[in-house]
Predict the structure of Mitochondrial phosphate carrier protein 3, mitochondrial.
Amino acid sequence: MAPSDQSRHSLVPGFLYSSKIQSHLSNNTNHGLPLLPSSSSIASYSSSSSLPVQGGAKSPVILSPQEKIRLFSPAYYAACSAGGVFSCGLTHMAVTPLDLVKCNMQIDPVKYKNITSGFGVLLKEQGAKGFFRGWVPTLLGYSAQGACKFGFYEFFKKYYSDLAGPENAVKYKTIIYLAGSASAEVIADIALCPMEAVKVRVQTQPGFARGLSDGLPKFIKAEGASGLYKGIVPLWGRQIPYTMMKFASFETVVEMIYKNVIPVPKEKCSKNKQLGVSFAAGYIAGVLCAVVSHPADNLVSFLNNAKGATIGDAVKKIGVVGLFTRGLPLRIVMIGTLTGAQWGLYDSFKVFVGLPTTGGSAPAPVK
């Protein structure tokens, strides 16, 4: 193959797509390395394959049913980013009341002793409307974070797989999941940090501001524009381990469910069953995420609430044990539900635009 022809193809690690496609691609290799086929070859394969029938039509794995979205193309990453906006923005906004109580329990555990009393105090002092205080920066911040988190995860997962090569990509796929999610989260938190800073200040300091429109100018006036990123290091400390656990454990649990619980391959499962697997695996991943990232979450809440505070001040005030335990039960419930819903919504969006759900295709043996 001439270099100009070779440059039009990409190496596709086996665990990124269906094992049926891998078997098909093994007959079309360049020096033993599988290539991403052209639209015409995929269309030809789709029409003759035994993949599940959806709505009376064959459902190709690499391309959407409309054959408009090609895996690993700019349109594919754009679709994944849009799915991230849809899943993260809406879910975080929906759990704003839980997040509000959690943040206040972390800042003032004497006043907000537990979940029940926390909701009672907020209802008494601020009324029912107070439960959604800070919902605008929550929606905007986590929508931006979701776009970067999911879009760049898909990008880095493919990028690192290409660097490793097909054999190593399959052998070290968990490391690739971890590296890809960590890289994506570094970018995602830069997008999230300003809105997170305003959100915490609005939620934990009554009378500071009604929301984003007046809270952002007040915050910048008090802390300066650079103050919006005062919590970036602890935010990375919270979100990077969280996201590494979120994606790597999700991918692993999905694969385990299809291997040990469901007696048929993923490709033969209905879309509804696949989405059920996504939610279940997401919930399990969310519980693990909450435990891993909780100490840093306490630090973020403390630093964004107290002007001029340092990490040392937070550890001294909260205590080492408190960093791991304060507000943890509520956060497990919140993050478990949140993460399960996010994966369900994300994969629902992918199905809606004609893409396969995430994970679960067993890799073919490397020869």
